[in-house]
Structures are given as C-alpha cells and as structure tokens.
Design a protein that fits this description.
- With 347 residues, this protein is of the alpha/beta class.
- The chain has one domain: Rossmann fold (3-Layer(aba) Sandwich).
- Helix content is 44%, strand content 17%.
- The strands form three sheets. It has a seven-stranded parallel β-sheet, sandwiched between helices. A three-stranded mixed β-sheet has the order 7-9-11.
- The chain starts with a strand and ends with a helix.
- The mean pLDDT is 97.
- The structure holds nicotinamide-adenine-dinucleotide and 2'deoxy-thymidine-5'-diphospho-alpha-D-glucose.
- The site of nicotinamide-adenine-dinucleotide has 29 residues, from α1, α4, β5 and β7.
Length: 347
C-alpha cells in the first residue's frame, strides 16, 4: 500500500507518521508537508532513514502539484492532517485557513477521485478533524457524532467546511472516507503557541502566563500518542462513511490545568512551591471563545476497542520531561518568526 499522510511534519502528524512507518514496514509512507512555521522535519529525525519513508515538500493549495504526486505515487490511502491549526491565528488571518483547510482538502479529494476514478475498492480518504466543529457546550453534556455542527471561530468554520466536503464527495461520487473529530491534544513536539507548550516554555523562561478571560474555559485533553493510536485504528478498522469522536475523558478548566502545570514545573525545576503560579496573568479574552469542549468517545471505544493508554498526570509528566530534555528543539522553534508572532499576540 502507498499511503499519503499530509501535515506529517507537524505536531500530531509527526506522531502518526512515526507510528505508521514503524508499525507497517510493508507500507510505503509518503509525508507531504509545506513546512510552514508549524512544520518541522526535526520532529522526524529518528525515522528519516527508514526505507519505507519518503518526504515530499509541497503545498496542498497547489492543485497541479497535488495531482502530479497522486499520478506519480498512485496512493491507495490518504490520512489528511495538513491544516492551519491555531484558533488565534485564524482570528487574525481567516483567509489563510480557508485556503489550506478548505481549498487544500478539496484539492486532495479531487486528486483522489481523479486517480481512483470509480474503482474505489481498497481505497480510503481519512480526514482528521476536530471537536471544535460542534461549537461550544454549556456546563453539561458531551459532543457525540450526531451533535449538530455549530462552529464559532474561522478555524473551526474552515474545519467544518472541509468535513462537509469530504462527506459530500462520499455521497456524490462514492468516495470511501472516514472522519474523526478529536479533542485537544498535548505531548512532545507540540508547537509553543498552544496553551500547554506555551506555558511550559514561559515557566522555563520565567515569563508571564497569559490566561484568557477568567480562565474558567474547559477543554478535554488527550495525549498525542493516544490520538495517533486511534488514527491507526480508524484507518484500518473504521467503517466506510462513518465519523468517530476521539477524546480523553479528561476535562480541565484552564486555570486548574495551569496551576497543576505550575506545581509540577516547580518540582522539576527545583523552584520553591508557588513560584510559577505567581507568573499567572489574566489577559483580554479570545473573541468568540468557546466555553467548553467535551467528547463522548463511546463509539470508538465500543466499536473499535480504543481507549486512552495514559492518565493525564502520566501524559503531562512525559510531556514536561520531553520539553525539559529538548530545550534545543524549543529554542529552534521559538527563534525567528515566533518572536514577532508572540510580540504581536501578547503585547
Ligand atoms: P500543526 O499546526 O502542528 O501541523 C500542521 C502541519 O500541516 C504542519 O506541519 C504544516 O507545515 C502543515 N501544513 C500547513 N499548511 C499546509 C499546506 N498548505 N500544505 C501542506 N502542508 C501544510 O497541527 P496539529 O496540531 O498537528 O493538527 C493536525 C491536524 O489535526 C489538523 O487537521 C487539526 O485540525 C487536527 N486536530 C488538531 C488537534 C490539536 O489539539 N492539535 C485536535 C484535533 C484535531
Ligand atoms: O479541541 C481541539 C482543538 O484544540 C484543535 O482543533 C486545535 O487545532 C487546537 O489548537 C486546540 O484548540 P484550542 O483553542 O482549544 O487550544 P489552545 O491551546 O489555543 O487553547 C486552549 C485553551 O487555553 C483555550 O480555552 C484558550 C486558552 N488559552 C490559550 C492560549 C494560547 C489561554 O488562556 N491563553 C493562551 O495564551
């Protein structure tokens, strides 16, 4: 099988690529990535020499290029993760999100349809999406696979749109597809613009910890390797034209999570108890900020037997250790453009 994984140099994509390359030596894995600010081949140093792995640099918004690689490599399956993924950036620049997340996805669908024509046997387009398409929950309830789409940010609207296109290609052209909608990931290689890695980096640097609004927003956190395991399972065992919700059964209010992070970091860095908490600074809220996300992952649990393998405490500890052991990685990704982004975003 020739498998195309898009966005494989990013946070989640790199864990998916590594898992597929190592677990399936008979597959040829092609990682297509434009290497935007979020893409980093350093994430895949350990597997770049594997004979079943090929990196392709390219942009999914370039239809001619996308068609040419489908023709050249005759992919049997696609695992599509490439996206603009940060909500705050989508508020500043929505069009970039439309281009990559919507147009890019449609380009991939067209290329797959063109290659596979009407013979879809043993072919699969797997679209990796987010729980943010469902909008915001109140104090109770969970997102299920049948929750109505109600996106609130340009990011989630672009992801919702791409989900609709994938479904539409399934209904209209018979394209075989699966979609998964996952909650917030955390773990090694997470780009330090997102809450957990940003705050780990700021604690190391003794910089302020900018908590949006009152900090009472809730997210459902999942260790990235557990998401990669779920993606592997859905790719191989998921039912055609089905959606699977993936989550951590692990809700945290931002402020409680930040305080836990501060406590663990104080111990790891041999700082006095309560030192990092003093860095917490309440700042202006994110516009359109979704109050709460929480996933009902019972379908993937019952039908495919998936469940998270680590607790939040274990996952957070592994994550913090990884960042402390990889300060060079952190220094590399926070040099250059990152400084400009940080200054504009948090001035
Ligand atoms: P990320 O921003 O870390 O990585 C995205 C990758 O896509 C980068 O390597 C980037 O270079 C690449 N890319 C961006 N634009 C591209 C383009 N035009 N052409 C080719 N490559 C391009 O994102 P992530 O957090 O790893 O998320 C991966 C996917 O999972 C996304 O589709 C996201 O919506 C989804 N998702 C993320 C989370 C999360 O918590 N991070 C949760 C659920 C779903
Ligand atoms: O739910 C899945 C989604 O999770 C993914 O689809 C997105 O790609 C991913 O970025 C993530 O979106 P969030 O907006 O939930 O993640 P983020 O880390 O940006 O923010 C988490 C919470 O922390 C959110 O309530 C906003 C808050 N926050 C974030 C930052 C960056 C702060 O309070 N301060 C910050 O500086």
């Amino acid at each position: 099988m020739n498998i195309l994984i898009t966005g494989g140099a990013g946070f989640i994509g790199s864990h998916v690529v590594r898992r597929m390359v190592k677990n399936y030596p008979d597959y040829s894995i092609y990682n297509l990535d434009a290497l935007t600010y979020a893409g980093n081949l350093e994430n895949l140093n350990d597997i770049e020499e594997f004979s079943n792995y090929t990196f392709l640099k390219g942009d999914i918004t370039d239809a001619t290029f996308i068609n040419s690689i489908f023709k050249k490599y005759a992919f049997d399956g696609v695992i599509h993760l490439a996206a603009e993924s940060h909500v705050d950036r989508s508020i500043t620049n929505p069009l970039e999100f439309v281009m990559t997340n919507v147009i890019g996805t449609v380009n991939l669908l067209n290329a797959a349809k063109g290659l596979w024509k009407d013979n879809f046997e043993n072919k699969l387009f797997y679209h990796v999406s987010t729980d943010e398409v469902y909008g915001s929950l109140g104090e109770s309830g969970l997102f299920t696979e049948t929750t109505a789409y109600d996106p609130n940010s340009p990011y989630s609207a672009s992801k919702a749109s791409s989900d609709h296109f994938v479904r539409a290609y399934g209904e209209t052209y018979g394209m075989p597809y699966v979609i998964s909608n996952c909650s917030n990931n955390y773990g090694p290689n997470h780009f330090p613009e997102k809450l957990i890695p940003l705050f780990i980096n700021n604690i190391i640097q003794k910089k302020s910890l900018p908590v949006y609004g009152d900090g009472n927003y809730t997210r459902d956190w999942l260790f990235v390797k557990d998401h990669a395991a779920a993606i592997d399972l859905v790719f191989h065992k998921g039912k055609n034209h089905e959606t699977y919700n993936i989550g951590g059964f692990n809700e945290w209010k931002n402020i409680d999570l930040v305080k836990l992070l501060c406590k663990i970091m104080d111990t790891k860095l041999n700082r006095s108890s309560g030192e990092s908490e003093k860095l917490i600074t309440y700042v202006k809220d994110r516009p359109g900020h979704d109050l709460r996300y929480a996933i009902d992952a019972s379908k993937i649990n019952k039908e495919l037997g998936w469940a998270p393998s680590v607790t939040f405490e274990q996952g957070l500890e592994k994550t913090i250790d990884w960042f402390l052991e990889n300060e060079e990685w952190l220094a590399n990704v926070t040099s250059g453009d990152y400084k400009e982004y940080y200054a504009k975003m948090y001035q």
